[in-house]
Fold this sequence. Notes:
This protein is an alpha+beta fold. The chain has helices at 2-12, 22-29, 48-61, 115-124, 142-147, 239-251, 264-271, 287-296, 312-325, 338-346, 348-355, 359-374, 419-435, 465-484, 497-500, 506-518; strands at 18-19, 39-43, 65-68, 86-90, 97-101, 106-109, 129-130, 163-170, 175-177, 210-218, 220-221, 225-233, 259-263, 302-310, 332-336, 407-411, 414-416, 443-446, 451-460. Strands 12, 13, 14, 15, 16, 17, 18 and 19 form an eight-stranded antiparallel beta sheet that branches. Residues 67-73, 77, 91, 111, 136, 140-141, 143-145, 147-148, 211-212, 525, 528 line the site of adenosine-5'-diphosphate (ADP).
Amino acid sequence: VFDKAIAEFRRVLDDKHVCVDTASLEPYGWCTIPIERRISAVLRPDSVEQIVEIVQIANVHQVSLYPISTGRNWGYGTARPVRNDNVIVDLGRMNRIIEVRRDLAYAVVEPGVTQGQLYAYLQEQKIALSLNPTGAGPNCSILGNALERGFGIGPNGDHFQAQCGMEVVLANGEVLRTGFGHYAGAKATYLYKWGLGPYLDGIFTQSNFGIVTKIGVWLMPTPEAFEACYITCNSEHQLGPLIEGVRKLIASNTFQGPMNLLHRNRALIMLDRYPWDAMANRTPLNETLVADLASQKKIGIWNGVGAICGSASQVRAARQTIRETLRGKTDRITFLSERKLQILRQFPRTSGVLLNMNIAELLKTLEGSYGMLKGVPSQMALPLAYWRNRASPSLQSEINPAKDRCGLMWFAPVIPMTAEDVTAFRKIIEPIFREYRFEVCITLTAINARCFDATVPLLYDRSDPEEIRRAQTCYDTLVRACRLDGYIPYRLGIQSMQEEITNQDVFWRVVQKLKSALDPNGILAPGRYAP
Length: 531
Ligand code: ADP
């Protein structure tokens, strides 16, 4: 049966875009999560029409299709399907930027359009709009992250919030346009999220109900003034008051979009590697050494970073509000503008002496984080995946933690934005990390004025089978312990989806009904957040 399906796929696509040989399939199996998946083939369509035909063939021959956009999705599964024997539908060739409206500040993109590509396009065309990238690097798609409801920091940082209008190939081969998109000549398809009648976009995110072939994305008009704000706290006691302050600053829109609070360990793993020698191969890192490494790099115990922008006077006012709101709650607040960055670049020696800092080192991190806030996609967060990897990133233009066999699983529960909840959450996870001998590296992203998306990477050494097993048990223990106390992940890796879906829960039963209605043969991404 499978050979017949492949023969039919070859009628639709050129031979070179129907891959079954081991060498072509190999990159799709690279993954930072320690589970293996058999992949039966890869198809690389170039149009909606081809996808429609692929879906029809899959129904006839009962082939499971697993759509990906760029297939990076580091630490959540990369391109690996949830179940065995899927045919990956790689949409990377569909990388057209269909439209950018300067005045109304949006873009319409296909699945293969990457963060780097849209950024370059806006620059080349001198369009004064910026996107909000994730930390996953320039080669990741915009669409895939919006479908996973991922986020960046700064304006429009909640990517599903910033998504408007969708085109979806359904499992029966019909093409659905959401919002106003299904009305001929509709004027506000990419401007008004809700359309008319039931709001359907949500069911195509974190699901397996369709293959999304196009989305609208809201962009930010370049503001007159823009500054990054860096906050340093050197004592754990400051975290509670800092959280209360941050909540006010987000609620009052002083920070534009999400801002991050990084624990010392999290900042450290982005800049350093596990000191295997100094630790004589023991794990986890001991407190004295961590504190030493962090102080060499001038990292606080908690480190905040966020964007303020608007007119020059709005930015001035925001600076003042931040200083007043956080007075007495932090050790240092620094604002960085383009002009300040230029001075640092031009006079590294003098500013270094004045500030008593290694400016070259500092610039590397500052340029990365400042740029990200401003919409420049960067690889700066990716090195964290190598923390416990004993080999260095292989020399290539793109850092690829999956290819380099890094051990990374993201754990990302949502925590109410109160000091009590953050403390309760840490009391659950910290002993678990300690018991299994891993470092706790928390970032709290204030995704709105009410809650944090916590992202906690579980970093392990892929070359050590014992450590791999320990990491898996640690991960499962974390998810279960947090769920018991009501801290549920906003997103899952492919290793945890099976456990989540249960018949005992009305919610998952409704999901199951939708799945059978929309995809009766179950051909689309079986097991992905749904049966
Ligand atoms: P990125 O490379 O930008 O991180 P991926 O392409 O890996 O994103 O997408 C993340 C996940 O979202 C995929 O594993 C897949 O399950 C789902 N997905 C991505 N693109 C699509 C699409 N066009 N239609 C349906 N699901 C998709």
